[in-house]
């Protein structure tokens, strides 16, 4: 039985440049989970935010001739604007430069020092002065050159604090064993154990002296807290951990809350190895799940600003609406697997699933209801339901159980596919029932009445199940179906009760069909790299 309190987080993103489809993917899928849980009556807290410290941010700011704070403030606006456009329903937005966070990190660091979880040592590695970065023996190779800029590197030592991972490895492995779902998909766990834990986990360097833009270590001026220790603690600082008002922390970092971190595959190690260790050192419970989603590739490479192969989301939303973009991400790129964005698939999904299957189901049903019953939902004669009616209602009930099971297991793509499968079955039902034929035969009036009635209930349900994704069009669907505001609840829709007497309002198609060729070209042009654009 799923716990009734639910805490879900996205990674806090680096505001080193404006957000792209990769960031949007993670936030949207997390948002869909949060909305689906809220809809079902869970007490949800959904957190996202920004990871604003570190050397890269300091460098980017310097390159622009502004202070790091000015720099992150300006990039933060681009994230906030995109989340608003994408209708991300987060309950808080944490920024690691906020006082509430900085103070908590300092208190945590202090507790680590007191308990000897961190100790002062020295960090040694191959250092590139130009890149201001340490590299490992393997990275610099036999010639001892910087893998980034090719300049010679030098052996360098700096004083640093280390987190004593050795103290916690055993209990981490025990936690993995006792919580088989902690790392999902399961393949990611094997990767962590074989690649990082088995070969021997070094103590983690948790402070830096080579740059300033970070949380200052009070115990040792000149040191700043390493960006990952700083960043991971956002998940508890945002709830008020070690702060005056810690009511949210007490409520949501508790044993009776399901705690889920959604992260990209690039940061699994930090969330599944170091984070549980930090929590153990603080005497706090560990999350239930770290859900690792795949990375979006572009032209066979991970999408990233530095590679110039980025897809931005704003122009897609502007042209196709927020629902088409959200739907594409949820349905096309299987949650937990690597995926890629292609214009062809985007247009196909929008046309096949949204315009043809879903939009048409509503349109055809309301069209027939208008013709046969003046747009008012017809009566359901319960004891005259035939096999087709019963089969569809049964399918609808099964879909609800499947949908809930999938969502509880964070299988977003499967849950949405199940809802769309019901839509397909309802379309098939129209074909099989052929209401137009029933309408021609007076003796079949009850059968026609049942058909229109059952269809309306099933569409109401499908609209509800898709509402965490289709945030814009599901209210429009409920408007057309004539569902009054107080009845737009999950409990109501899954009951599949008769909507008899409801006055519907047939309107514009929810999703107009796209001209496949023209729109594929349009999106391809948006995605072209600056070089390709120049050539064109
Ligand atoms: N700041 C750290 C996270 C700290 S969490 C305590 C960070 N930030 S990031 O902005 O570089 O990436 C954060 C997340 O954005 C990734 O884990 C992933 O969820 C998402 N994505 C960034 N690029 C992506 C793709 N190309 N594809 C899919 N998701 C991507 O790491």
Structure commentary:
The longest helix has 31 residues, at 343-373. The strands form four sheets. A six-stranded parallel β-sheet has the order 3-2-1-11-12-7, sandwiched between helices. The chain has a four-stranded antiparallel β-sheet with strand order 5-4-6-8. It contains 22 helices and 15 strands. It is of the alpha/beta class and 536 residues long. It is elongated. It has helices spanning 21-39, 55-64, 68-85, 99-114, 137-140, 169-178, 187-197, 227-232, 234-237, 247-252, 268-281, 314-320, 322-332, 343-373, 387-408, 412-433, 435-438, 445-466, 473-481, 490-494, 516-527, 530-535, and strands spanning 5-13, 43-50, 92-95, 118-128, 133-135, 154-163, 183-184, 204-205, 207-208, 224-225, 257-264, 289-293, 296-298, 301-302, 339-340. Bound molecules: 5'-O-[(L-methionyl)-sulphamoyl]adenosine (MSP).
**Mean pLDDT, as a whole number?**
94
Tell me the number of helical segments per DSSP (H or I, 4 or more residues long): 22
Rg over CA atoms: 27 Å
In which range does the helix fraction lie?
A: 40-55%
Instruction: Point out poorly predicted stretches.
Output: none
Based on Cα principal axes, name the global outline.
elongated
Small-molecule binders:
5'-O-[(L-methionyl)-sulphamoyl]adenosine
What structural class do the secondary elements suggest?
alpha/beta
**Largest beta-sheet details:** 6 strands, parallel
Kindly state the number of beta strands. Answer: 15
CA(first)-CA(last) distance: 57 Å
Major sheet strand order: 3-2-1-11-12-7
Instruction: Quote the beta fraction.
Output: 5-15%
């Amino acid at each position: 039985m799923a716990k009734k309190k639910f805490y879900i987080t996205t990674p806090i993103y680096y505001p080193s440049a404006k957000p792209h489809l990769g960031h949007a993917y993670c936030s949207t899928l997390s948002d869909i989970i949060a909305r689906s849980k809220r809809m079902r009556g869970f007490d949800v807290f959904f957190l996202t935010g920004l990871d604003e410290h570190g050397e890269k941010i300091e460098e980017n700011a310097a390159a622009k001739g502004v202070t790091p704070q000015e720099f992150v403030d300006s990039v933060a606006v681009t994230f906030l604007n995109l989340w608003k456009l994408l209708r991300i329903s987060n309950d808080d937005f944490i920024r690691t430069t906020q006082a509430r966070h900085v103070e908590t990190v300092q208190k945590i660091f202090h507790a680590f020092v007191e308990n000897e979880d961190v100790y002062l040592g020295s960090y040694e590695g191959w250092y590139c002065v130009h890149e201001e970065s340490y590299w490992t023996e393997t990275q610099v190779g036999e010639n001892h050159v910087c893998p980034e800029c090719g300049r010679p590197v030098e052996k360098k030592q700096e004083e640093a604090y280390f987190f004593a991972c050795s103290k916690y490895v055993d209990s981490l492995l025990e936690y993995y064993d006792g919580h088989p779902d902690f790392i999902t998909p399961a393949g990611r766990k094997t990767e962590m154990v074989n690649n990082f834990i088995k070969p021997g986990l070094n103590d983690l360097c948790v402070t830096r002296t080579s740059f300033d833009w970070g949380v200052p270590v009070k115990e040792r001026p000149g040191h700043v807290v390493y960006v990952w220790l700083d960043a991971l603690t956002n998940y508890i600082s945002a709830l008020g951990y070690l702060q005056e008002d810690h009511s949210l922390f007490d409520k949501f970092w508790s044993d009776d809350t399901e705690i889920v971190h959604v992260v990209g595959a690039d940061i699994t190690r930090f969330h599944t190895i170091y984070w549980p260790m930090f929590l153990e050192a603080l005497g706090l419970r560990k999350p239930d799940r770290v859900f690792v989603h795949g990375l979006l590739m572009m032209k066979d490479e991970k999408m990233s600003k530095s590679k110039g192969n980025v897809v931005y989301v704003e122009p897609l939303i502007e042209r196709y609406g927020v629902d088409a973009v959200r739907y594409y991400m949820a349905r096309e790129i299987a949650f937990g697997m690597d995926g890629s964005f292609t214009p062809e698939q985007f247009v196909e999904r929008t046309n096949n699933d949204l315009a043809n299957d879903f939009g048409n189901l509503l349109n055809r049903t309301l069209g027939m209801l208008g013709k046969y019953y003046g747009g008012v939902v017809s009566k359901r004669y319960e004891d005259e339901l035939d096999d087709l009616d019963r089969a569809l209602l049964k399918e609808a009930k099964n879909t609800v159980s499947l949908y809930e099971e999938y969502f509880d297991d964070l299988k977003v793509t499967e849950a949405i596919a199940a809802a769309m499968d019901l839509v397909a079955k309802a379309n098939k039902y129209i074909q099989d029932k052929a209401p137009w034929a029933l309408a021609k035969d007076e003796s079949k009036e009850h059968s026609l009445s049942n058909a229109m009635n059952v269809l309306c209930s099933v569409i109401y349900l499908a609209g509800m199940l898709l509402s965490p994704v289709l945030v814009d069009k599901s209210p429009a669907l409920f408007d057309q179906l004539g569902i009054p505001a107080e009845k737009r609840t999950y409990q109501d829709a899954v009951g599949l009760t008769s909507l008899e007497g409801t006055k519907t309002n047939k309107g514009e198609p929810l999703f107009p069909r796209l001209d496949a060729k023209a729109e594929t070209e349009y999106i391809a042009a948006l995605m072209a790299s600056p070089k390709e654009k120049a050539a064109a």
